[in-house]
Every structure is written in structure tokens, then in C-alpha cells.
Amino acid sequence: MSVQAQLTKGKITLKGSARTVTEFFIFGINSILFQRGIYPIEDFEVQKKYGLDIWVSNDLQVTKYLDNIMKSVEEWLSLGKINKLVLAVNSRETRETLERWQFDIQLVAEQVVAAGEKPKPPKSEKTLQMEIQAIFRQIAASVSFLPIIEEKCTFNILVYADSDAEVPTTWTDSDPLHIKNAEQVRLRSFSTDAHRVEAMVAYRRDPDLC
Description:
It is a single chain. The chain has 210 residues and is α+β, with helices and mostly antiparallel strands. The protein has one domain: HORMA domain (Cell Cycle, Spindle Assembly Checkpoint Protein, Chain A). Helix content is 37%, strand content 30%. The chain has helices spanning 3-35, 60-79, 108-115, 125-141; strands at residues 44-49, 52-57, 82-91, 97-107, 153-161, 182-191, 195-204. A 5-stranded antiparallel beta sheet has the order 5-3-4-7-6. It has a two-stranded antiparallel sheet with strand order 1-2. Helix 1 (3-35) packs antiparallel against helix 2 and helix 1 (3-35) packs parallel to helix 4. The protein is globular.
């Protein structure tokens, strides 16, 4: 295979992977919003994805907010210019961050080079779907270990991109919205042929249990 052919194939792989990861973020964020009760159940509808029934918001403000963000996320993924996406759940009254769902993103090629390994053969769609299914099942099961959210909440999406990434003019810088004295639970990961996504959730520790 010529060098040019290798480069072209790499761009196609990265672009396709960017679409896959972006779709995961869209459905994953919606699933978290539903499972954690951030919006009422009537604001959601079921869609079939990854062989699962996933609750997706039908609120126009939510979908518009996510669509605008995910356009840039997909572009940055295809250029290898994004390393983290965070969903922060915040109290409407106090603005305090109650939960912080973090998704770390790495380029598979960079991991292979750093480890001095040979590239792995392409991953099958079935294997990829099973990895993603495992994360969604963990999100659904999170109600068993995360504290009950009793107050009204909103959410923010934080995107960590390279300094040379072209940022929309409507976006603003934000603090990391960390949680003081947080408990952390690491979730499953999944990888395409181009990206690896590792998930974790941090939540506010119950002061009565300290």
C-alpha cells in the first residue's frame, strides 16, 4: 500500500470513528439525563440503539444545545483535537456540581506507538456494540450507588480541546466544575479502530456518612 493510500485510509477511519464516538456521547448524555431524573419522564422518548432501548430527550432546548456542541465535537474528534468531554449535573438553586460524568478520549494510534506495540486488527461491529452496551448498562445501574438527587438540577457540557482547535464564538471558557471531596467510580471503556473512550463518574459524598 502506498503512503498516500495509507493516509487516505487513516482519514476515513478517523472520520468514521468520530461519528461513532459522537453518537455514543449523544445517546450517553441523554441516558444519564433520564436515569438521573434531571428532566421529567414525559420529556423523553424511547429510541432503539446498540440493540438497547435508550431514553432520549424530546425537549427542543436540550436537543438544540446538544446538537450545537456535538457538531464541534465530531469535527475535533476527526482531527484528533479533543481529549475529554464532561457532563456536569448542577443544582439550579446553589449552582453546586452534584455529579460529574467524565469521558477521556485518546487516539488509539498514539497509545500503540507509546507502548511500542503493533496495530491491532480492525474491531468487529459486534464487539464494539457489546463494549458500548456494557457502558449503557452501567449508566442504568448507577441509580443503585449514586445518591438520590432530590433538588432541581440543570447540566453543562465541558469539552477539552487542543489550544489550536477552532472554537465557536458563542462558546465561553468555564471552570472545571470539580466536586470537593468527591467519590469516584470508574466505568467501562470502549474503543473503535481510531479512538478509545474511558468513562468515570464523580459524585458528592453524603456528609452524614463522613
